[in-house]
Structures are given as structure tokens and as C-alpha cells.
Amino acid sequence: MGKSNWKKPPKEWKAKTRAAHVGYDPFLSMGAVRPPIFAVSTFATEDAEKLEHMFRRAYGFEPPLSPDDEWPIYTRVSNPNFIMLCDRIQCLEQGAEESEAVYFPSGLSAIFTMVLTLCQPEDTLIFGYPVYGGTDHMLRHIVPERMGIHVVPVDATDLNQVEEAVKKHADNLKAVFIETPANPSLAMVDIQKVADLTHENSDGILAVDNTFMSPILQHPFQHGADIVIYSGTKSIGGHSDLIAGFVIDKDPKRAFQIQSIRSGTGPTPSAFDAWLLFRSLDTLEERVLKAQDNAKKIAQFLKEHPKVERVIYPDFYDQNSEEWDIYQKQCKGPGSMITFDPKGEKKESYAILNSLKIFGLAVSLGGVESLAENPWFHTHMDVSDEDKRKSRFKPQTLRLSVGIEDADDLCQDLDQALSKI
Ligand SMILES: Cc1ncc(COP(=O)(O)O)c(C=O)c1O
Question: Which of 76, 297, 307, 343 is catalytic?
Fold first, then answer.
């Protein structure tokens, strides 16, 4: 909590220390050890010249004069709780020291505003499926149909497809968007190779949705990504009590443009949610690692269960496969998402979901409580059956988000539910 470290932490500080200290200077709030909630819409400025400068910044005409020059003027544009939160989340993202974070009221709003900033009508955006169902819907329907942006879906696990699409659309390619590991197939996309293909053949940038791994288990900037995206609703929030999103851009100028488009189009997160997120970051590493420990045990339990046909979990990838190599290169652990097929069809998978007592039957992930759903009929309903099959999930596939409860209790819960089929 030292005064000098709240903005720029020493390089040697580990994630846990950064997550608990960066972003807040108690001496700006009368020594309060935890930050207050700035529940205000507007802010007074000392003089008209400073207000003019802040407006120039809000409209994206100029970046701040220095990192400390961040006086808020109006909460749609910024708020002290947003600034603290962005400083803290940014410093967890390794591989781009100068990056800047922008805070959004949801993960989808972060992706949408990024697209709105980078692409104009007729520009091309390539996205690598599989991605979260809501992102898929936005990129396949809303963005091309409402904004006139040319959206090209490719199988991002097939680098030939990525290369072909990048070369074909190089002239007006603005961005390639991938999610890895993907939701719900846990397919691994090689961030470095997609980054190289994008950068060597076009002026486009690579954006990576890192929601599944969180800043604790994967650092896309270290593998050539230009922008990292999070649904802050998941492990970053971690308690299933808010919706949030982040864009972290390694180019601070582009981050200001994105922030300026957010301010200019209106999606505004709340100071209270920012305060909750700031508090959640204190325990991010503990929660992510505990959930991962639980998931390892549950994945093994399911693998050995006679009523289970297939378990998709990174630790079980074929060690002679390219996917295993990508996993080893990119991820610090397998995470807490498990996808598995019980024996049977949709009916059996629903019988399991309807029998679970500890796992909640709910979408979302990364919370302290364990959740289960059927991606084919729930989160990914809008994805075509063909693409779902290509993304290796079936009508009976179940997706688990493992929380931080007792692992034995969770295994018992699955066991009693599997006994119903
Ligand atoms: C990987 C991933 N990205 C983005 C989103 C969208 O985030 P939000 O629900 O916060 O808008 C989700 C939501 O489930 C997700 O799983």
C-alpha cells in the first residue's frame, strides 16, 4: 500500500501482490485502506483550462499529458473507480508494459466497441470459431447486417484457413479475433502463429478473448496479440454478482480511441461494479488456482466414470498432438472448465442437469460456485449444427464451470446425477 507503488508497481512484484495493491493510493482518500465508491455522475474541475483539456481527451483529440493526469469529468467518460480498476487489471497483463485497459459494462460490449473502433463499413474482420455463442451471434449477424462490416469466419485451429483468409482480405483487413481456449470445446488456437500470419500479411491486428484462462493462466501479449479481451463477468468478477468487460490494448493510443468510442456511444459501467471488481482482483489468483485444482480432480473422476464417454480437458490432450504443444506453450494450467459427454443423447444430458444438487443449472462461468449447462441447446443455440459438430461438441455434451467448493462433494454430486441415466 506504499504511496509510491500504486500506479507503477516494481517489475519484480508477482501477480498476487499486484492484484492486491496496484491502482489505489489511500492518501488520496484520507488514508482509507480500501477505496470509497465514487457514486457520482459529474466531477468539479479546478479551472476552465483543465476542463477543456479533459474534454479534448474525452473526445479522443489527445491522450492525457501523463498517467497521473486522469481527472474525471463525467462518469460516462470516466470515474475514479474505473481508473483504479483499469490500472489494476492492466498491471496483471504481462507482455506489454505500456498497455492501457478500458472498462465496459459487459464482455460483449467490450468486443462490440472494439469492432466499432477498428472497422468501418466495407472493412473486413476475420474471426476464428469456435467462440462464445453470444460473440458468434454478434459477429455473424449484428456486425455484418447492421454495420456493413465484412465478417469472415474461419476455423482458427486450422492455420491454413487463417492464412488463406488473411491473404485474401489483406487490403481491408482490420482485425482478427480469436478465443482460446474456446468455449465450450476448449480448442487451443496458436496465438503466436495467428499473430504472425496477421502481421506479416496485413495491417490488421490480433485480438484475443482470454476469458477462459484469465490473466493468471495465459498472457496473450507474450504471444504476439495486440488486444486482450475479457468478460469480467467470469473469473475476474468471480462471484456471479455483476456483468463487466475489458479491452486491454498494447497500443495506448488505440486504447484511448476505444475508450473515446465507448464514452461517445454511451455504454457505462457502474462505480459500484468497478469497486466490486477491484475487490475481486485481490483474490483472483487464489480463486483461479483453487477452482483449477478442483477441476483437475473432477476431470479425472469423469474420465474414469463408466457413464461418461468423453472428457475434454487440456491435461488430457494427446501429448503427440499440436494442440498439446500449444497448450504447453501458452497456458500455465488447464483451468476450471470441463466439457464432457455422458453416455446417451440430449435426454440423458438433461436428466443429469436436472439431478445436480450442488452444480447450479446456469450459464456463465468462472464464479466461486460450480455451474453446468448444455452448450448445444443453451449458450450456443444460435450456432449452426454443422459448426457445432466441427467444434467437437454434440447434443449431449455438458459444460462444467468448476468453482471453489469441496472437490469430493462436487464429484459426489456428479456421481449421483450420472446414476440417474
Ligand atoms: C469467452 C467469453 N467471452 C465473452 C463473453 C461475453 O461476456 P458478457 O456476458 O460479460 O457480455 C462470454 C460470456 O459467457 C464468454 O464466455
Answer: 76
Is residue 262 annotated as a catalytic residue, yes or no? no
Q: Is 234 a catalytic residue?
A: yes
Residue with cell 484469465: 214
Amino acid found at 53: H
CA of 135 to the centre of ligand 1 (A): 7
Which of the listed CATH numbers 1.20.120.160, 3.40.640.10, 3.40.50.2020, 3.90.1150.10 matches domain 285-418? Answer: 3.90.1150.10
26 CA to centre of ligand 1 in angstroms:
33
Q: Is the whole-model pTM more than 0.85?
A: yes
Task: For residue 147, give the H/E element and its range.
Answer: helix 143-147
Taking CB atoms within 8 Å and a gap of at least 24, the contacts of 27-35 are 27/3, 33/1, 34/279, 35/80, 35/81, 35/84, 35/275, 35/278
- In tens, the pLDDT along 368-388 reads 999 999 999 999 888 889 988
Average pLDDT over residues 153-162: 95
347 a catalytic residue: no
Q: Give the model's pLDDT for residue 3.
A: 45
- pLDDT confidence band for 68 (50 / 70 / 90): low
